[in-house]
């Protein structure tokens, strides 16, 4: 049974940084596309960044390019999202997703974590 558990969310001031973690069990993260998605109140879930294997391709939403970095630690079966220069457009519930395919879109995910909340406020 696949289980994804996110952590690392919290309250941060504008311009600050956070690192989110997603640890998987029941599956080896190195074998599948995994990514980060977010959903703000009243909005649809959107892709933030994905890490595809075996190509190692990384994709980012335009809104986070240059600010967010996705990475993976195979030994810990964990992916990360380093978020810098957080601003008022970034607050949301952030979800980790896993896909058996190769499309970084919410509808393409086969498994989801329960999410972690990111709040940006002074």
Description:
This protein has 122 residues and is mostly beta strands. 0% of the residues lie in helices and 48% in strands. It has no helices and eleven strands. The strands form two sheets. Strands 2, 4, 5, 6, 9, 10 and 11 form a seven-stranded mixed sheet that branches. Strands 1-3-8-7 form a four-stranded antiparallel sheet, with no helix packed on it. The termini are far apart. The model has no long low-confidence stretch (mean pLDDT 94).
Q: What overall geometry do the principal axes of the alpha carbons give?
A: globular
Give the radius of gyration. 13 Å
The averaged pLDDT comes out at 94
Regions with little confidence, pLDDT below 50 for 5+ residues: none
Count of helices?
Answer: 0
Element pattern in H and E: EEEEEEEEEEE
Strand content: over 45%
Intertermini distance? 40 Å
Largest beta sheet, briefly?
7 strands, mixed
How much helical structure, as a percent, in the residues? under 10%
